[in-house]
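input
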Amino acid sequence: MKFDLKSIVFGIVIGSIGLTTAYGVTKNKTIDVSYNVANISIQDKNIIFSKNSEPFIYNGEAYAPIRVIAENAGWQVYFDKKDNSISINPSDKSKIRLLEEATDYVGSVSPEKTIDIWSDGLKKRSAALQYVVMTESLKENYVKSLEENGYDNWITGVSSPWVEDYEVLKTNKLSDDSYEYDIKYNTKTSEGNYNFLVTLKLTKEGDFWKVSEVNGDEDSKAYTGF
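output
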């Protein structure tokens, strides 16, 4: 019997072959399963399962290890130890996620350099450069904002007028670990120069200074991604 991917409900195989024990939150349950799945294929390519991860049938539905299925389909499985959750994403998205996590270990040791990196993101229309110097809470809001505003490729801003340079107008020290900066960004086009205003709040996280808040005028929205 040949099973097509679309006709199979996939589950995670837990336990041993033969009698498989499924563990619930409050009780254990012993179930009888059948190993009569002759073959599983994705786009006519047969999947090879190891002896301890064979697909089986339970209550009329076929189950197979989710990682084996996903990886053979060209996707990647990510297990989050923080909340014991599993996510399945295209390979490119998984790579992006790993890069996002890697940014937690990099940053700037001075507020001025943090502003410079974030502003360089505006100049180069790079959401990644802005993202890398943000606090954890702002990163989460930023990614949501990018998705909601259609910046799926993480290219922010507009081709014209483009950001040419910036000038810090005012610095306000809130505490030893927090500053606020009023910044004017100058843009340029073939028809003339314009500017928009942004207020950045910087907070120290560990050894690094991170952007914790971004507030700008109406013209800034197309450039900041918020």
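quick obs: Confidence is low (pLDDT under 50) at residues 1-25.
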